Amino acid sequence: MFKSRMVKVLSLMLVLILAFSVVGCGKKEEPKKDGAQGNPNELSGTVQIAGSTSVQPLSEELAKEFMNKNPKVKINVAGGGSGAGIKAAAEGTADIGASSRELKAEEKAKVKEFVIALDGIAVIVHKDNKIADLKKEDIKKIFLGEITDWSQVGGEKGKIQVYTREEGSGTRGAFEEIVLGKDASGKELKIFEKANVQNSTGAVRTAVAGDKNGIGYISIGSLNADVKAVKVDGAEATEANVKAENYKISRPFIYMTQKDPAGATKAYLEWVLSPEGQAVVKKHFIPVK
Amino acid sequence: MKKEQREKYYKLMLLASAMVALVVIVLIGGFIFKEGMPVFAKYGLGNVFWGRKWQPSSQIYGLWPMVVGTVYITLGSLVIGVPLGVLTAIFLAELAPKKLVSLVIRPAIELLAGIPSVVYGLFGMTTIVPVIRKIARSIPAYADEPTLSSGYGIIAGSIILSIMILPTVINVAEDAIRSVPREYKEGSLALGATHWQTIYRVIVPAASSGIMAGVVLGMGRAIGETMAIIMVAGNAPIVPESIFSSVRSLTGNIAIEMAYSSGEHTQALFATGIILFVFIMIINSLAMFLAKKEVG
To answer: Rounded CA gap, A64 and A184, in Å?
Structure first.
């Protein structure tokens, strides 16, 4: 009968599903055992990283990759900000502190620093925009909404259309930190709230590519022929100029340790600066080696 | 297996399937409320809901711009989409030749419903936004104001959404019109009324609560739409001053900022979700109420 056959098919399916899930569980256990017996000299230990939230996503990606290669190493990545990272490294509360700004002289004395990556942000405009060069100060005023017409910075008349990334984006954070900075009372300046918000690098690029009066910012690695990157204070937005410190809208990503690193921390730092680690860096930032 | 026993198993199986939906909605609702409530508790429900400034990096979480933005875009889409949808429904149910409907119009409407929202967004971003930008820049009062002359904003969002809600409005309204008893129509025609008089004096009023249910369901779809809106609305978190203004929706607020948010910022996005959840619940109960009225 049809109905009883359906019951049989259903129960067969259920049995199969159960069987597979049991097999699945069994398989998961196996590699662990192999790993434990396989290599007695394998690297092990924990590394605690804390500091800049801008470096955090990169650290997480690097840590994931490193832990895949060295299953017995555990790397914990926490945020807290560059200031907290420098403090943590100086006091030894974290194995590695992370900073996304240059260290001051007195800070340099307390820690050993390793620049692991560079971050550069290009300011982009429409391809037909006559403007080729902007002063950093003017870019700041444009993104604060103080300069509103291209003619104020030497271009053709036309209202400037500002495109920005969403709050919380690392690129926006870096741009605000480097270009806008703080006001006289020490309050961090923000991009004016009437700016158009796009939630990805590609969306900002597309928006600016389609708007004659548009201006936006994207990471240097994401530039393409659809938009024009303006020179900032005379320097072109290229990786070479970021490395040579000619291009102003850039910053280093720095790892710091209290003393000479050892054990898992040392292995991790060496790996980050190796071609393999730098290849991970290259996905979103500018490698240093 | 005995017949009664088998019967019981089937019933259990069906009950279990039905329970999944219930359990999932309770879990999702519970999760959103659990994650979002701390922000309301810390800053006050009123301050968050009525707050006019959204600046998470400075711990300012005002959702009012997004609430207003969502309402404007939704109303705009209804203004364009409902007349179009209802007239189409009347045409399909009353006037159109059967062949035309089944071969051309209905497949087209179904296709409209099947297009992914990101494609609508892309279409809007590359074709509708530039047209609106041109219009806005030709209006002297708007040309000087960047947020009003970008082309991104309420109008672009409303136009895209009005297309997206069409299938919902048309299908529900058409069903409502078709379910008007034959006798109404026959009676009206027998009294000497023309076909058009019958349609707008008898059939549409008789189907009105069903049509309203379609409108309300379309409204729910409009409020919940995310991707297409993000791509054409400009997303500036400001209370709009004009229909040309850049605007951010509640859904857009969550989708745009979730990826990189952390801590309290994430909770504030869940709080946005709570408000959205309540909006949708109100709208769905309204639709259910209207649909029930029709039957009774």
So the answer is: 41
- A7: chain B residues, CB-CB within 8 Å: 1, 6, 9
B257–A53 CB contact, under 8 Å: no
Size of interface A-B (CB pairs under 8 A): 87
B16-65 pLDDT, tens digit each: 999 999 999 999 999 999 999 999 999 999 999 999 999 888 889 999 99
Average pLDDT of span B69-93: 95
A7 and chain B in contact, CB less than 8 A: yes
Cβ of A167 within 8 Å of Cβ of B145? The answer is no
Query: Residue A247 and residue A235: Cα distance in Å, rounded?
Result: 5
> Of the given ranges (A42-46, A127-131, A253-257, B135-139), which has the lowest mean pLDDT?
A42-46
Higher-scoring residue by pLDDT: A17, A115: A115
Angle at B290 between CA B288 and CA B294, to 5 degrees: 115
Interface of B to A at Cβ within 8 Å reads 1, 6, 9, 53-58, 125-126, 129-130, 133, 143-147, 149-152, 230-231, 234-238, 246, 248, 255-257, 259-262, 265
Contact (Cβ atoms closer than 8 angstroms) between residue B217 and residue B41? no
Give the model's confidence band at B87: pLDDT under 50 very low, under 70 low, under 90 confident, else very high. Answer: very high
SS3 track for B121-172: HHHHHHHHHHHHHHHHHHCHHHHCCCCCCCCCCHHHHHHHHHHHHHHHHHHH
Q: How many CA atoms lie within 13 A of A76 on its CB side?
A: 8
Which among A4, A79, A196 has the least Cβ separation from residue B236? A196
Residue A100 confidence (pLDDT): 83
What per-residue confidence (pLDDT) applies to B16? 94
Over the Cα atoms of chain B, what is R_g?
Answer: 23
State the pTM of this model.
Answer: 0.73
Q: Which positions in chain A touch B267 (Cβ < 8 Å)?
A: none
User: Hey, what domains does chain B have and what are their CATH numbers?
Assistant: 65-292 (1.10.3720.10)
Distance of CA B146 to the CA centre of its chain: 28
Q: What is the pLDDT of residue B32?
A: 94
